[in-house]
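Support request, please re-run this one:
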Amino acid sequence: MTRRQILSLPALAALSAPEGLLAQAREKAKPLNLKVTDLKSWIVNHGGGKNYVFCKVYTNQGIVGVGEGSVTSKAATMKAAIDEHHRYLVGLDPTDIEMHWQAMYRWPRWRGGPILNSAISAVEIALWDILGQALGQPIYKLIGGKARDKVRMYVHPGGGSPDEYAAKWLAAKNEGWNAGKGGFIVTDGDVIDPVTAVNRGIDNLRAVREAVGDDFAICIDVHGKATPTMAASFCRQAEPYSPYFVEEATQIEDIDELALLRSKTNIPLATGERLFTKYGFTQICSRHLVDYIQPDVVHCGGILEMKKIATIAEAYRVELAPHNPQSAVSTLASLHVDMTTPNFAIQEISSGKRSQFWEDFFQGSGAIYENGFALAPDKAGLGVTFDEEVGKRRPYVPVTRQQLRFSDGGIADH
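Re-run finished. Output below.
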């Protein structure tokens, strides 16, 4: 049999098509004649200082996809940005995901930033949810299939004083987690003193390492609070305690600041939660400025965009450690990418526990954790849904983030 005859066989012909598996999935979904009929969004306040922004994309066949685009302290703006896509999407085939992403990103002319990209991310996640449900497959099966059997997670044990840090991190270890993340650097209310913040941060780190032992992964989130001098000092003093990585020790405006820190420390570095699309990550990966990139699926452009970012990183042997302090929607979207990514390392979640409100809101759906790992999603589509009527019990509450200053009154980063 000739090569042409072999490729003429239906299954092999489909596999050899330029778009591969995604094209097959879209073709299989076409007989459903899916069309978008509506797009709606909601803001849900979980209590305290955090609002979450969710959306649903509705279709003429009753399949509904869910997405999330939560941006801290900008929830009302975020909802409006998601709703802007209503007039574009209604009447279109939701399975043309790449086409819709390009249209939402390129046609408005004004590109980038947390609001516009998070709005696209929320819609894109919902479209993948629709496609997965239409085909009866988890999303990760449609974007490459398994590269692993389970996904390593880290939690946020918390802490204030060294004793409190030690107790909370040891409790997390005893609960079965093998990795955690904390801020460590200390502020006095809304005031940050560079020397005190670093020194007390090292005290906290030392206490945690002594409590959890050498095998527990300690991730450190500087959260952009440090000046370049503070970042270098903290990393230098943290080296004896072998952190898994130090995250966001520099600001995002100048990647050469990251290169400068790279030259001053041997600690693995991570960044990326405030970077967007493949364009925001290419130079950081190609210049090997970090060991871990941290795209956030609800900010960076969605599921397929995070997969593209991970592939760029893979080419430079940089590992993927996605940012995710959001809800079960964001967590499941991240897990689908993690499952398919060869260079995936570790995935963030807040605590691994959910309040009764979240249980009711998500109708008991979400990720399943065992011994510090998340299991592969096994439901069609995203694998999580939500009840907007429950969400209405916790309506939007305006939130102002911490307004951090130096002791002289000057504005500090946060």
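Confidence is low (pLDDT under 50) at residues 1-18. The radius of gyration is 22 Å.
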